[in-house]
Amino acid sequence: MLKLKGILQDVGKPQEALAQSLGVSSAAVAQLVNHNLWPRRLEGEVLRGRIRAFLSASGVNDAAIAGAFDEADALVLKPVAKPCVNVVSKEDDSMLLPKQTLQPATRKAFGLFRDPFDELQSAEDMWVSPDIRYVREAMYQTARHGGFLAIEGESGAGKSTLRRDLVNRLAQNNDAVLVIEPYVLASEDNDTKGKSLKSTHIAESMMAAVAPLAKPKSSPEARFAQLHRALKESHAAGYRHCLVIEEAHSLPVPTLKHLKRILELEVGFTKLVSIIMIGQPELGVKLSERNADVREVVQRCERVTLAPVDRSRLKEFLTFRFERVGKALADVMDDGAVDAIVARLSQPTRHGGRDGSVSLLYPLAIGNLLIAAMNLAVQLGVPKVSADVVKGV
Q1: Which residues are registered as beta bridge partners of 195?
Q2: Are residues 34 and 150 in the same domain?
Q3: Direct distance between the N- and C-terminal alpha carbons of the chain, in angstroms, rounded to an integer
Q4: Same structural domain for residues 110 and 222?
Q5: Which domain range does residue 71 map to?
Q6: What pLDDT digit, counting tens, does each position of 259-268 carry?
Q7: Per the structure, how many domains does the chain have?
Q8: Three-state secondary-structure class, residue 355
Q9: 344 and 390 in contact (C-beta within 8 Å)?
């Protein structure tokens, strides 16, 4: 680490201000002050001169400016008396990055013609871990044989990918299963924030899928009876029916309760509809055993959580993604970078008086971080993504 970092802190100048003055990215300045890595696109002495001018204009004395590019002695850094784990410095970047895009120069430098983390083009593009395989199979068996399943996962965990895989798998295997997906755009759990998805809307979607030519009855009671008859006729024709609801965390509690009644539609001992709900962790809160309003739903619903990528399998995941686009992982990053991604996407926590960490190694977060690191590596002129590059993002 350069003494430049401490000088900027002493005069109250954020690294972003220096980056703006130099016309480079904040990540490039972070690499410079933290790891003494200089952008190759700017001539070193010219850049030093511009930094000295910035420091002088900021009121730094000549002696400090003269030693700004020396390595800082870690033993003489001022300790922080009372660190607060809940306060994040303005200079610290967010752990989770927004959507990142491979820059043209990055594609050219690494010889990539496809983004390894872009939308999957086929089922073969989907990496399957033991955890994902279990969730995938649970969804498939529920669709084919009946049941009530709730899939919970963080944003970017791969929930939508598994839904697309389920529809594709049923079609490829020629399974006689009608997948019914209600329209959930702008769906919210109350009508103040958006449009809530009610049981009548779900029934309309089911009727449109099972008997698209039938004219809906006027009264709600008649429509539900009409739906029940249509499901029986479809079942007699050899079809099963699977109701798949995405963004299920936005379902209002009354609709959750009504799903139990849809699940109870049957002919003899055979349930006519299976239900798969897919949502973010807020869905688990609504399905809590302590929530008396939905206790009948909770007793019948199997809950499965989509876990982050296991740390020990991160390299396997990355290798698979790059091989799908015709690139060896070793040509893009070294092993130190893999460990740095694990560290960057691990959030420290404290529970029950013990220190621990929460993993944020979800496919979307991994992809955004690595793409940003690849863009930065090209900007810095280094051939591969290293641990230092990942830390500088």
Answers
A1: 187
A2: no
A3: 16
A4: no
A5: 1-92
A6: 988 999 999 8
A7: 3
A8: strand
A9: yes
